[in-house]
Amino acid sequence: ISETEHPRVGTKYRVWPLLEYSWGIDDHELGITHIIRGKDLVKEGKIEQHIWNIYKWKHPELIYYGRLRFQDATLSKSKSRQEVIDGAYSGWDDPRTWSLQSLEKRGIDPRALRKAMLDLGLSVVDISISMKPVYAENRSLKDAEAPRVFFVENPVWLTPVGIPEDVEYAEAPVHPDFPDRGFRKIPIRTEGVDERLGIPQKDFERLDEGTLFRMKDLANFIMKKSEDLEMHFNDLDVRTILDANAPIVHWIPEIGNVNVQLTLIDGSIVMGQAEPSIQNLPVGTFLQFERVGFAKIFEKDGLIKAAFSHK
Predict the structure, then answer these.
(1) Residue 9 counted as domain residue
(2) Residue 226: which domain range?
(3) What is the count of structural domains for the chain?
(4) Nearest CA-CA partner of 216 in 196, 246, 244, 193
(5) Long-range contacts (CB closer than 8 Å, 24 or more residues apart) made by 224-233
(6) Looking at the structure, do residues 131 and 40 belong to the same domain, yes or no?
(7) Which has fewest Cβ within 10 Å: 10, 173, 234, 248?
(8) Are residues 171 and 308 in the same domain?
(9) DSSP codes of every residue in 164-225
(10) Are residues 183 and 278 in the same domain?
(11) pLDDT of residue 298
């Protein structure tokens, strides 16, 4: 019973339907056949059933599910809302909100999320799962459409020595499984002069003096750290590397590389450079940074901005 004046009918009535009563009436009037809700509302379901029995109405089917928790995601609408309001998050598409907007920005296909949920099924038992099944399904759905691009964070610049004069650029496939899509031409020279090439810091640290390694889709080299960070040309044949079980590293050219800002899942920002071909990809492109992971370009304003999806 409420003595408070109602905004629409004033003080004409004193008794108002309770929440569960209104649910029971609404579900009947709307012709609801199935009600799917969290198991924390089992009591409310019993109250509705009591109301339906009083009116001798047909019962909709009540289906309950337990709490679903992702091991690698913190889901809190109230916390995310406050962080968005305070400006700590860039918006509802910030990856830390784990909202549908944020998953879309990262290039997560709705079908991947749907399949993961259907595979789980409905159970009143609380479930704790990893996002890995979602990522695996997303990879299965979208790998074929993803062009490949070299991206290097904080590159270490090496001077190539002895590359044959007729090798002016590297030819890397747009997609290794679809040769008909062509190749990316990555320049290594300017007017006949070899430009420095950048490799990831972690690769540089594991390549000891004299180590044989391959610059992916270019050539094989010998590391010469003692000679002003040089790498000396060895040969072009990838079989040399395969036979020696030697490392293969991705790289970027000093000439024509493009600045890229990569937003990671935890909201942190990684700055790096990508090969020139990324300039040809439009906003919305789902791509793979080779040996880094999948990402989606969400902005191009001089600086290319991409959101990391998954490995």
Answers:
(1) no
(2) 146-311
(3) 3
(4) 246
(5) 224/161, 228/159, 229/156, 229/157, 229/158, 229/159, 230/158, 230/159, 230/160, 230/161, 231/158, 231/159, 231/160, 231/161, 231/197, 232/161, 232/162, 233/160, 233/161, 233/162, 233/163, 233/164
(6) no
(7) 10
(8) yes
(9) -TT--EEEEESSTT-GGG-EEEEE-EETTEEPPEEE-HHHHHH--TT-EEEETTTEEEEEET
(10) yes
(11) 98
* Residues 187 and 277 both lie in one domain: yes
d(C-alpha 137, C-alpha 86), whole Å? 34
CATH of the domain at 298: 2.40.240.100
Query: In terms of domains, do 173 and 256 share one?
Result: yes
DSSP helix/strand/coil, 61: strand
CA distance linking residue 295 with residue 260, whole number of Å: 12
| Same-domain check for residues 188 and 272 | yes
Residue with the larger pLDDT of the pair 309 and 21: 309
The answer to whether 42 and 67 are in contact (CB under 8 A) is no
Q: Do 150 and 299 belong together in one domain?
A: yes
The answer as to whether 125 is a domain residue is yes
Instruction: Measure Cα distances from 80 to 76, 85, 93, 99, 267 in Å.
Output: 6, 9, 11, 9, 13
Read off the pLDDT of each residue in 204-224 and give the average, rounded to a whole number: 97
**Residue recorded with tokens 């070299």:** 150
Structure tokens at 239: 């079989």
With cut-offs at 50, 70 and 90, classify the pLDDT of residue 2. Answer: low
- C-beta pairs of 95-101 under 8 Å, 24+ apart in sequence: 95/263, 95/264, 95/265, 95/266, 95/267, 95/307, 95/308, 96/265, 96/266, 96/267, 98/70, 98/73, 98/74
Question: Which residue, among 70, 99, 68, 100, has the nearest Cα to 83 in the 3D structure?
Answer: 99
The model's pLDDT over 24-61, given as tens digits with 9 standing for 90+, comes to 999 999 999 999 999 999 999 999 999 999 999 999 99
CB atoms within 10 A of CB 129: 17
Amino acid at 258: V
68/6 Cα distance (integer angstroms)? 38
Which region among 11-20, 31-40, 159-168 has the lowest average model confidence (pLDDT)? 11-20
